[in-house]
Amino acid sequence: MKAEKQIRAKIEADLELERRTGNGPLLLRYAAGRFWTEVGQYHAGHKDTWKALERLMEFFGPDKRLDEITDREVAALVAWRRQQFATVTVRNDKGELVQKPVRRVSPATVNRSTTGVLKKLFTRAKRVWRYQFPVEPNWRAHWLKEAGERVRELHTHEGAAIDLAVRYDFAPWLEFARLTGLRLDETLIKWEHVLWDSSQIVTTGKGGRVVTARITSAVRAILNKCKGQHPVWVFTYVCRKPRRGKTPEATRLKGQRYPITYSGARMAWRRVRDKAGLVDFRFHDIRHDVGTKLLRQTGNIKLVARVLNHADVKTTARYAHVLDSDLDDALTVFAERRAKSPRKIPRSKVAKAA
User: Fold this and answer.
1) What is the DSSP letter of 177?
2) What CATH fold (topology level) applies to the domain 156-326?
3) Which positions ≥6 away from 168 have C-beta within 8 Å?
4) Longest dimension (CA), the chain
5) Contact by Cβ (8 Å): 75, 160
6) CB 133 within 8 A of CB 69
């Protein structure tokens, strides 16, 4: 009898919510589908977004109501995700592409690919779809502590190894990244983003913010090489293995040029990194390399912040360690001058001595 009353009260509450807001109970599959349609499919890493949504439905079940997801269930979700492995794509003995587990997923991966995605569903449901969650999970309590972001600089011999390892058709794109310090998805630009008159490239970056890159003489030379290769996209590659797709757009003909996609760029970078023998160096570290070298050259942290399109100069402060050598030099000069200058004895001490 008590259970029946609880069910009836829940139904009445749902009907009241729908009457007031126009929204009925929000099932996870509906939330995931609507999120994908409205924003997810437009993410630079939209394939990763789709996998993350599928992962949530795998754990909770597609008919799970968002307002019934508790802190206990989110904690279980995090624990479940932490037991999974990150994988890389390799070829087996038969030449087939397979997924090979390499290590357990990191706390940062859990935060961004699981907890953070679920939180985004709740946030969009509240702000855009006008749903209410009286007992929303405490997201901060489920956010795993991440290792402090390191700043990895590219050494001279590593840069030379990259030049030798990269395919000729991917070389302009990779050199563009090494000159501008743009994030991977920001390097995949269209010709409409190239503003020749103002000597800048304007595109959309992280968080939907506008990012700019200056067209220096070196960048201009790269862009000029790419002219005429594709009417829409700047950077392209030459197809080596033909592929027959279900649609004309998915078909690839050997010897023809096609735009470098996000997934294609990631795979190309992994091949370059492995062939060059780079250790502990990610594509994002190219951005760090630009920041450190530019700061060392100019000593102007605000300038570096503008180049890297940081909204807050505090973010750029992570590169300040490169000025340590200048600090050491300044302190050394200070100590040398202090040692050479004669020390004056206060008059009060001279009088007492007399």
Assistant:
1) H
2) hpI Integrase; Chain A (1.10.443)
3) none
4) 104
5) no
6) no
Alpha-carbon gap, residue 257 to 246, rounded angstroms: 19
pLDDT in tens, 98-138: 777 878 999 999 999 999 999 999 999 999 999 989 899 99
How do the domains of the chain map onto residue ranges? Answer: 15-142, 156-326
Burial (Cβ within 10 Å: 0-12, 13-18, ≥19) of residue 319: buried
21's CB contacts (< 8 A; 6+ apart) are: 130, 131, 132
State both tokens at 34: 């609507």
Is the pTM higher than 0.85? The answer reads: no
DSSP code, position 154: P
Contacts of residues 123-131 at CB distance under 8 Å and 24 or more positions apart, as own/partner, are: 124/35, 124/38, 124/39, 125/26, 125/31, 125/66, 128/38, 129/23, 129/26, 129/34, 130/21, 130/22, 130/23, 131/21, 131/23, 131/26, 131/66, 131/67
Which pLDDT score is estimated for 208? 76
Considering only residues 161 and 335, tell me which one the structure prediction assigns the higher pLDDT. 161
CA distance 189 to 97: 29
What amino acid occupies position 343? R
Return the H-helix or E-strand segment holding 258: strand 257-259
Beta bridge partners of 243: 252
Predicted confidence (pLDDT) per residue in 136-166, tens digit: 999 999 999 987 667 788 999 999 999 999 9
Q: Please tell me the predicted confidence (pLDDT) of residue 247.
A: 82
